[in-house]
Amino acid sequence: MTGQHDAATESHRPFAEPVCLDLADPDTLRQLWDLQRASYAVEAQLIGFDGIPPLHESLEQLRTCDESFIGVRDESKLVGAVGWTRLRNGALDICRLVVHPIAHRRGVATALLDALDSIEPAELAVVSTGTANLPAVALYRRRGFVPVCERQIAPGVMVTELERQNTSATQPIHNS
Length: 176
Prior knowledge:
Layout: H1 2-11, E1 19-20, H2 26-47, H3 59-63, E2 68-73, E3 78-86, E4 92-99, H4 108-119, E5 124-130, H5 134-142, E6 146-154, E7 157-165
Parallel strand pairs: 4-5
Antiparallel strand pairs: 1-2, 2-3, 3-4, 5-7, 6-7
């Protein structure tokens, strides 16, 4: 019974405002690595595929990836993070959005995407997720993303690619 109470208490802890993550800090790197393994384990179950690359990424691969990160902590640890890059055409590529299972349905992903929109405004944003990951697809659709294509990444496993045009953009993005 104590374990259930602790999990329930932990799931209702408040979280802090999103902050930039420094992957040169070993503790931050380890927390992000642990977080993404927990998050992608859930997605692997949802889509029936455990070959999601970040699920098998080493600490060194994560540390040297070309992404920028912001994250959200609760009182004790990192509970959510988003990583992104800029494509050559200027589009914002959301490479990963991870939320620890104890923080699901608490607005962490929304807070991260709000912060990302604020610090990295883009005329075009792109993201992909497992087609069977219905919570992620629904989140992106609520954020104005529209599916543009689906592709198979393994037998029976589809990924949906989504994009969002910023309606206040003054110049169109040209794909390179």
